[in-house]
Amino acid sequence: MMKRNIKIFRFLSLLLILIIYSSCEKTLEKKEKNDLGLFEKVGAEQSGIHFSNNITENDSINYFSYLYIYMGGGVAIGDFNNDGLQDVYFTGNMVENKLYLNKGGLQFEDITESAGVAADNRWVTGVTLGDANQDGWMDIYVSVSGKWVTRKNLLYINDAKEGGVPTFTESAESYGVADTGNSTQAVFFDYDLDGDQDLYVANYPLTEPGPNMEKYLRYRELGTPYDKSDRLYRNDGNGKFKDLTQEANLMKYGLSLGISVGDFNQDGWPDLYVCNDFVTPDYFLINNQDGTFSDENLKLTSHTSYFSMGSDVADFNNDGLLDLFQADMLPKSNRRIKENMATMNPEKFNSIVRNGLHHQYSANSLQLNMGNDKDGLPRFSDVARMTGLSSTDWSWATVFADFDNDGHKDVYVTNGVRRDINNQDFFKAPKEEQDKLNDLELTKKLPFEKIKNYAFKNNGDLSFEDIGEKWGIDYNGFSNGVAYGDLDNDGDLDLIVNNLDEKSIIYENTTTDRKLNKFLRLKMNGPQNNTIGLGCKVWLENNGETQFQELTLTRGFQSSVEPIMHFGIGSDAAIEKVRILWQDGKEEILNNVTSNQMLAINYNNAKIQGKTEINKSKPLFEDITDKVQLKFKHKENPFDDFRYQVLLPHKTSEYGPALAVGDIDNNGLDDIYVGGAFGQAGKMYHQNKDGIFSEISNDIWESDKKQEDVSATFFDVNGDGLQDLYVVSGGNEAKSESAYYQDRLYINKGEGKFERNRTALPKMHSSGSCAVPGDFDNDGDLDLFVGGRLVPRNYPKAPRSFILKNESTSTEIKFVDVTEEIAPDLSQLGMVTKAEWVDVDNNSYLDLMLIGEWMPITYLKNEQGKFVNETDKIGFSDTAGWWFGMINEDFDQDGDQDFVLGNLGLNYKYQATEDEPFSIYMNDFDRNNKEDIVLSYYESGTEYPVRGKGCSSEQIPVINYKFKSYEAFASASLADVYTTEELKESLQFKVNNFASIYLENQGDGTFKKWPLDNLAQIAPMNSMVIHDINKDGHLDVVHAGNLYGSEVETPRADASYGGLMVGNGKGGFESKMPYQSGLMVKGEVKAAKKIRLAGGGTGILFAKNDDYLQLLEIL
């Protein structure tokens, strides 16, 4: 019995060991599997897809005979035989198109020949899918380009063979859509809401590089020739389409590459965004609901991409508004930028802007929808820099899709041009050498480099993670079209990429197999004329968050995605609410929908509902500018700052207008002084009891218009109870130490009359930034701090700032410069932008807090009338930034003063970290008795000059001799170009962080820095106002800014429409979108002031450079 028990014990022990081992092995297997990429590449032998878009260069077909040779082909995904499996169609330029039937299990059969869709010998480009004849079967529209054979586009009508091998009949001619305009892509959409699918065709007229602006302007004035325009075809529902391009107001010249359709302004009618190459501006075509479109691009976007390629539209931040991503060709690496990107000529850039072709920059644009303005038009902000999506090299397709099913739409970008056709060294080579070669020989001398594709995971907070390598989809080659769809019906989105000169790729998504997240897929069973449900909108509401999609198939570049709505929903087992809205207004609402299923949505279940308000937030502001008759426009004078310093990061002559708010006649209402630029007189406005502002005429403003007003403040100088006016002179127009920069003091004589006092101020020939009154010596009158902004034409040298002691008497107004005596650090402290008198340490003496460009947050402690720099002691030594805005208040209600500080923000070309700072050096590098500047940044631990060989050698010509080629300069570090020794001898400033912050006073002589949320980082904060906007008892912050004076190779900072940060009374802030707050302030805001209004209200007045005043009343 005992032996039997021992055997049983041994058996159980062995079994336990095996179970434990098996469990460990399974755990190990799971871990190894989870460490694999999210996608797995499916080999051609397994899938049966061998398509390769091969280009054969020859004497007649090469880059120099056909500039568009490397644009590649597209890919379309759709179920052509209605068997529930998504099939795949590829387009090829010099090879046959291919149609692959999905057999299940990611295996496909080539049925091209039997289907009749090979497309003969035409140079095929894009492909899109739709139901052209309203029979419930997917048709194929193929775009054609080239110059050798016919350029007629193709329409393959599905012969409707359910479950079998699909066949098609080419019918473009008979349907009226055999467009010959050199097409790149098309899109089916119902622009007139008559229930069927109309067609927009994007055309890229054959042209030579270079003179496109002149051609565009000529066509704009005289009319665009028919063969140079995109086309709009209306589906008449009888197997015929009618060309209504002219009637729809769409005869426009552009080099069109990408199209996106969406209801951007939420009026129920589909709009269009068309990407145009080179200088021809993009179209933002708003549907007028009457069969016509209006191009509103200049109004709706603040800037766009220059070489606009493919695009996609989606709500990437889950706020119910459609955003837009467009691809350009800015490399990510320092080397490729400097080898391949030409210097942008400032005069050319300015000419583009002057002629109404918009601000265009060579970088990807991620246009965040900020909501509709008062005219019902959507406004957009480019946030590509902040999200890390701006620079993906020569990019073609961009698509939004939730690849990991976490509820946030990710991004995939295809890349690569077969030869580096922008290589600077190649095109700068001696002409006589190139003339010896024919076009084919020249083409083959062009260098080439394979470029990886990018994938970006959406983090859900206006940030993305570059995750292509980790996910296993960073193919290195030359990719053009891409499409997504669930090819194996497992609940996640697979990818198909069309490559040039290499086999196409299928990536299997393993999200569902690995049970990472759940999904919901919706197949729309629409009405008879639109069975796939194009234009249908769907909202998913769950756990307080909303996802939104609108069904459109043309996405990315020359490609078309599956006609299924796919939602990732994270770990949720069910969705609380699904709302479906059809284009005719019928609606269906589903509750408690189970996840992990394909759900059929039937049009017949939908009903007409009442009109739904999309933006439910009650506005907190009302624009009353016109109502109160404020019509002042600041007019910036033209001045070329870069003539004096070629490598300036931005202009330094555009810091106005000055703005001061105060009650000049003690009637209980605030009045306004607004300053002019050089050559423009300032204006004084009196607020009447009826709320109307009337200009107070005074010759003194006119007589002083030869100075530039950059800041102003009202305060009682002489204790007579009247608000006097101090105006700071600034700018960069005059030389250093010029009387042009002398500040001015105007004494209020009562009844709206002011008189300039020319003796009260000391000599102050410094280009200034701000003037802040405060009684620093506790003697009962108001003294002044005056900030120095710059040493003219010597950026970034530190100018002199001033403390002016008020020594006025009953008979004389007098300010004395006591800077050297009590605050000698101010003689060269830095390029001050803002200052505040604040009793930081609660000792009853006003201390001085200062910020500036390239400056740390600076604390000058008031030791009973003497100022000691305790910046390092208080912990601010590492806080250098481009600080533009500052306010202070006890935001956390603990009895001391906290600060909100506005920096450059995180949405600019210039980025910085503690390990890799952004720097500037100043030295006479070429020993010509003139100081030079150089900006630098880091890439992978190496410091490089920001600017390229062309503009760098314009400042220091010897660089051209030191580096004979662009390739040599592109590989050179900063020290290679300027030498380590000379850099050490230079004046140097560096920034570790450009984030705007909340600075919490700890009450013990130290502060804690908290970065503001990402929405607050989209642009520089120049000015701020404190008020309890939402009336919850906690102080909120309204901010505004932007920086329009960037050098032309750096996209201007223009993403802000003003911002509201709602405070929680504990020092925390939450930023609100403009559509939530009603705050919509477009422009480069230099000053914002709170103002008391007639009727007891409170307003905020915004002063903008080269723009109108704007007054918002707080509701």
Descriptive notes:
The chain is mainly beta. The chain folds into 3 domains: 39-525, 7 Propeller (Methylamine Dehydrogenase, Chain H), CATH 2.130.10.10; 621-910 and 994-1114, YVTN repeat-like/Quinoprotein amine dehydrogenase (Methylamine Dehydrogenase, Chain H); 918-989, no CATH class. β61 (885-889) and β62 (898-902) form a beta hairpin. The chain is globular and about 100 Å long. It starts with a helix and ends with a strand. Residues 1-35 have low confidence and may be disordered.
How are the secondary structure elements laid out?
Blueprint: H1 2-35, E1 39-42, H2 44-47, E2 75-78, E3 87-90, E4 98-104, E5 107-110, H3 112-115, E6 123-130, E7 139-145, E8 154-158, E9 168-170, H4 172-175, E10 183-189, E11 198-203, H5 212-222, E12 231-235, E13 241-243, E14 256-262, E15 271-276, E16 283-287, E17 293-295, H6 297-300, E18 304-305, E19 311-314, E20 323-326, H7 334-340, H8 346-354, E21 360-361, E22 365-372, E23 378-382, H9 384-387, E24 395-401, E25 410-415, H10 424-427, H11 431-435, H12 439-445, E26 451-452, E27 454-458, E28 464-466, H13 468-471, E29 476-477, E30 479-485, E31 494-499, E32 505-509, E33 518-525, E34 537-542, E35 545-550, E36 554-555, E37 559-560, E38 565-570, E39 574-581, E40 586-594, E41 597-602, E42 607-608, E43 621-623, E44 659-662, E45 671-674, E46 683-687, E47 693-696, H14 699-703, E48 709-715, E49 724-729, E50 744-750, E51 753-757, E52 767-774, E53 783-790, E54 802-806, E55 815-817, H15 819-822, E56 831-838, E57 847-855, E58 858-863, E59 866-869, E60 881-882, E61 885-889, E62 898-902, E63 918-923, E64 932-939, E65 942-945, ...
Parallel strand pairs: 18-21, 33-41
Antiparallel strand pairs: 1-32, 2-3, 3-4, 4-5, 6-7, 7-8, 8-9, 10-11, 11-12, 12-13, 14-15, 15-16, 16-17, 19-20, 20-22, 22-23, 24-25, 25-27, 26-29, 27-28, 30-31, 31-32, 33-38, 34-35, 34-39, 36-37, 39-40, 40-42, 43-75, 44-45, 45-46, 46-47, 48-49, 49-50, 50-51, 52-53, 53-54, 54-55, 56-57, 57-58, ...
InterPro entries: Crtac1, FG-GAP, Integrin_alpha_N, UnbV_ASPIC
Keywords: Signal
Organism: Kriegella aquimaris
